[in-house]
Amino acid sequence: MAEHIRLYPVRSAAAAAAANRKRAAYYNAAGPGPGAARHSRYQLEDESAHLDEMPLMMSEEGFENDESDYHTLPQARVTQRRSGLEWFVCGGWRLLCASCCDWLINICQRKKELKARTVWLGCPEKCEEKHPKNSIKNQKYNVFTFIPGVLYEQFKFFLNLYFLVVSCSQFVPALKIGYLYTYWAPLGFVLAVIIIREAVDEFRRFQRDKEVNAQLYSKLTVRGQVQVKSSDIQVGDLIIVEKNQRIPSDMVFLRTSEKAGSCFIRTDQLDGETDWKLKVAVSCTQRLPALGDLFSINAYVYAQKPQLDIHSFEGTFTREDSDPPIHESLSIENTLWASTVVASGTVIGVVIYTGKETRSVMNTSNPKNKVGLLDLELNQLTKALFLALVALSVVMVTLQGFVGPWYRNLFRFLLLFSYIIPISLRVNLDMGKAAYGWMIMKDENIPGTVVRTSTIPEELGRLVYLLTDKTGTLTRNEMVFKRLHLGTVSYGTDTMDEIQSHVASSYSQMHSQAAGNNASSPPPRKGPSSAPKVRKSVSSRIHEAVKAIALCHNVTPVYESWAGVTGETEVAEADRDFSDENRTYQASSPDEVALVQWTESVGLTLVSRDLASMQLKTPGGQILTFRILQMFPFTSESKRMGVIVRDESTAEITFYMKGADVAMSSIVQYNDWLEEECGNMAREGLRTLVVAKRSLTEEQYQDFESRYSQAKLSLHDRTLKVAAVVESLEREMELLCLTGVEDQLQADVRPTLEMLRNAGIKIWMLTGDKLETATCIAKSSHLVSRAQDVHIFKQVSSRGEAHLELNALRRRQDCALVISGDSLEVCLKYYEHEFVELACQCPAVVCCRCSPTQKARIVTLLQQHTGRRTCAIGDGGNDVSMIQAADCGIGIEGKEGKQASLAADFSITQFRHVGRLLVVHGRNSYKRSAALGQLVMHRGLVISTMQAVFSSVFYFASVPLYQGFLMVGYATVYTMFPVFSLVLDQDVKPEMALLYPELYKDLTKGRSLSFKTFLVWVLISVYQGGILMYGALLLFESEFVHVVAISFTALILTELLMVALTVRTWHWLMVVAEFLSLGCYVASLLFLNEYFDVAFITTVAFLWKVSAITVVSCLPLYVLKYLRRKLSPPSYCKLAS
């Protein structure tokens, strides 16, 4: 049906014209008829246009009736043919303005265009263009931008900007209403703390960068080797990198000290994969007799322009001084990317990209300053308070009748009521955040947790999306061989000893046969008895399967202890006899290492391997040598890998192949068990591989080799031709066995993921790993629950294919989505909004083959399209961009190094700690900050209400009610400790929060701090302020100073009682804070003679008047709270009871 849809991606005019000519020819050839007529009518239309007319639909009905789609086209064309003036009026002016702005921005910030380059070996001076310096810079500021940058970050918040304006106004004599220190001391304190904290962080970043940039490397010159700093390396330099040294810039691999002409590198800080990658030196330079000969040849490397993709590279190596000139094509296996580490031997490479143009830097995003959602909400509320402040001041001036210099009075009223927006709000919240960070780090249940960004602990309580890496985060990246299935019999971990005895017996039999043959005895004939035949068949099948697994792989044994022990390497290798205990295996996939380790455990050991041969050791100690004739590496398209080997002892040629069941089921001979057993193993969470073989005669192989060599040399459609030749071998292969390998999950991953799902958090897994592996781990970790369907998004490369696949996804209900990075890129290019909308409806999403930049882009898309808070968690250098892009980044200190944990806001040691971090600490931090913020605002609103009542009673005079130390003491020693003690409050015990993670769902709705709760606190403040002021005015007798004494004392008592009303769980420090504040106030009464009449405050009349006013202001609120608890208790109260 897809042929009739005619959906095509947007293409260049030339490509579209060529396609139109082909289609015109096709439809003309189709002959006359209604179909031909209809097609010819629109045959030269740009196909991409009507795709925009076609909505993503629930079903394919619109596709079936393709007539209707074509009829919409002429209308679309008509709407586009508008006259110039009509176009300008209907939105054209907006387009012109946008274009002009873009042009101006491009002129101001013109970025250098990245171009392909020709790099001459060892001649940086021959470079045609200037390339960036090879230095790493992670700092946010420099010497000149530090102070302006930090101040801008602080004063972009309305709250801080308001405080600055108010404080500056006190320098104007006509506006001064108090002491300067009452305004400048709190603001100066906050700014000093922030500047010191930023300076320390910036200095640490500077130290780290300096350390990396100062690393010394050997540079090869005509005069020999010279030491050069990493930051002084240039494009064209020949750099020597020793074993375990970091590669300083992107290079093409020219030579190695290893005889095989290849080396291993560790890429964990680039792509997050812990296995080693095999890299191959350019054969032309590897063959040169000596290192110095690199300067005697005239050669250059042509490299494509710098790009993001770390998995691909296209280039050529050309040597001009040979006859004829030598041309070698360069691919990803000839490159050494920066930030990777040499794992074996010494390598020499020519630098092709430096600094900002290296793959690792291009894949790292700049860290952003993260601001919590609670801070943004409080910023909104302070704007509302400011509007209330302006309105109140205008009302006062209006009631005053605009007499005299009214604008000065207006400004004085603004300053008098400025306590509506309390300056202590920022101080209290920042100190609270520091306290939460300290509590998280001191929690014994999550040891080793480090808070690196102390400004966003409340974010942990507001998360909706959790985006996690797979390798090393959900899994330990430790593979264990679990199952071998031969069709009729299956072997598990408990029956491996049987396999061992079968292998031993079959090899001893072969050894005795070989000995017999050598003694000129005739080969033994098979006996007629049937019982031994059955046993022999199982034994021989096991022998064949184990041999196939031991030969079909990309694994190299490495002998650490022999490296560098003696100068005579060859002698050491000969003497070693492969019995070294310190043998380790290296491969590009941990699955392969697990398989080879398993063959070693059952008696068949891989002892040596180079590019041309490999050697196996039998249980009897014999060495079998196999020559590698051809190698077909694994690709994500083919989903299989193969090898053709010749047994040196028998000269037999065998083609072995292993791969995913989807790829292998059509290649192997008919059988009735493979599909069922693959399903069984997958349900157990095992990663399956199907192993098969085919014996080749010498003639068959020679025929294949000639066709294969021809295909590899073709210039057009090389990949397709090579694949076609290889496929000619992949027919009717003998199915040997099915293997099952388990990737061990991190401790308690399943219960943690279940807890997070119950907490209403949607989990997305973003990994650079293969699709099958990712799907397998998603099932075994219960990221995708057993009952759920999995929708695997097909590989799409064009707009039309993406359109069809998205429609297919839309029809699936409640299924987990699995998509690869390439398909994701196509979907985001054409259908970004639709894709994100559909993906967000899925209970779980798995994105595989993701580059670091794609991971960060997915995070940003979720933030933009959903407006919800995101959290990213990872453990490798490839997760840094994602962690920095998320609202809250969590890094795990793992096998892949500390890069992720250093870049993260929170660093943990195990994935299971995420549950407690979010459900317990996230909840407490958010709830406490919400209560603290609202109580501090209430404190300012109450005193501002009292000031308003006082001014209105005394003829709208702009005179302060309380002056000097009373105002400073009110916001500090008299009320600070009890209010701040709310950072110890908790509504639910940690055990309860972990037992009922569903409570977390309420937090994401943001009900603890909203305009509704804010209005309730405003009403409480207005009521209490009115009662306190009017009560004091009613009850005072002779002197005005009594009004101040009565109202201020009642105010302090009311604030202490309001803290007690807000507290949900009492802590002994809260009680101490209450009595300490009361004690401080009572003690200070004796010294504040200028504000209070000491004789009056010691009388009984003073005590009963203060008590009466306090009871009237607080008792109704206590009654209301009690009734609400009884009639409409919150969910956590129901659980607690």
From TrEMBL:
The keyword Transmembrane helix applies. Keywords: ATP-binding, Golgi apparatus, Lipid transport, Magnesium, Membrane, Metal-binding, Nucleotide-binding, Translocase, Transmembrane, Transmembrane helix, Transport. NCBIfam families: ATPase-Plipid (TIGR01652), ATPase_P-type (TIGR01494). Mg(2+) binds at residues 469, 471, 875, 879. InterPro entries: ATPase_P-typ_cyto_dom_N (IPR023299), ATPase_P-typ_P_site (IPR018303), ATPase_P-typ_TM_dom_sf (IPR023298), ATPase_P-typ_transduc_dom_A_sf (IPR008250), ATPase_P-type_domA (IPR059000), HAD-like_sf (IPR036412), HAD_sf (IPR023214), P-type_ATPase_IV (IPR006539). Its EC number is 7.6.2.1. Residues 224-359 form the P-type ATPase A domain. GO terms for molecular function: ATP binding; ATP hydrolysis activity; ATPase-coupled intramembrane lipid transporter activity; magnesium ion binding. This is Phospholipid-transporting ATPase. Gene3D superfamilies: Calcium-transporting ATPase, cytoplasmic domain N, Calcium-transporting ATPase, cytoplasmic transduction domain A, HAD superfamily/HAD-like. It catalyses: ATP + H2O + phospholipidSide 1 = ADP + phosphate + phospholipidSide 2. Residues 128-184 form the P-type ATPase N-terminal domain. ATP binds at residues 469-471, 592, 634, 658, 687, 767-769, 849, 855, 878-879. The active site is at residue 469. Belongs to the cation transport ATPase (P-type) (TC 3.A.3) family. Type IV subfamily. The lineage of its organism: Eukaryota, Metazoa, Chordata, Craniata, Vertebrata. GO terms for cellular component: endosome; perinuclear region of cytoplasm; plasma membrane; trans-Golgi network. Pfam families: E1-E2_ATPase, Hydrolase, PhoLip_ATPase_C, PhoLip_ATPase_N. Residues 510-537 are annotated as: Disordered. Residues 902-1129 form the P-type ATPase C-terminal domain. CDD domains: P-type_ATPase_APLT_Neo1-like. It is found in: Golgi apparatus, trans-Golgi network membrane; Membrane. Its cofactor is Mg(2+).
